[in-house]
Amino acid sequence: MAKKLTSGNGWSFEPAGGGRDETVRSLPDDKQSAVVRLEKRAKGKVVTAVSKFVLSDGDRKAVAAALRKHCGTGGSDQDGCIEVQGDHAEKVRAFLEKKGWRVK
């Protein structure tokens, strides 16, 4: 359990995750289900977002890296959602379906 550091002047520091054990087991590829959608960001930029899947942190990072490499673009992996820069919904759907995922 992570310790919470407190100073005498009222501020405190708690490590990221709040000291909770957030280990999630990944479902097998044939049991995975994901939602692929396009989202518009500030300044009119479009990103392809993949969400509603069950992956451990390491597996999610690996899938995000593979998707970015497959699409040849950048992106991010945060808050349980993988984002790929640009309109790559069809490429992402094809990639995930080839892995055996159900895609909506």
- C-alpha Rg (nearest Å): 17 Å
Looking at the chains present, what oligomeric state does this protein adopt? single chain
Order of helices and strands: EEEEHEEHE
Net shape: globular
Distance between the termini: 39 Å
Low-confidence segments, given as residue ranges, are none
Strand content: 25-35%
**Helix segment tally:** 2
What does this structure look like?
The protein has 104 residues and is of the alpha+beta class. Helices cover 25% and strands 28% of the residues. It has 2 helices and 7 strands. It has helices at 57-71, 89-99; strands at 5-6, 12-13, 33-40, 46-51, 75-78, 81-85, 102-103. The strands form 2 sheets. The protein has a 5-stranded mixed beta sheet, covered by helices on one side. A two-stranded antiparallel sheet has the order 1-2. Strand 1 and strand 2 (12-13) form a beta hairpin. The radius of gyration is 17 Å and the shape is globular. The N and C termini lie far apart (39 Å).
Break the fold down into its secondary structure elements and pairings.
Blueprint: E1 5-6, E2 12-13, E3 33-40, E4 46-51, H1 57-71, E5 75-78, E6 81-85, H2 89-99, E7 102-103
Parallel strand pairs: 3-7
Antiparallel strand pairs: 1-2, 3-4, 4-6, 5-6
Describe, in short, the structure shown.
This protein has 104 residues and is α+β, with helices and mostly antiparallel strands. Helix content is 25%, strand content 28%.
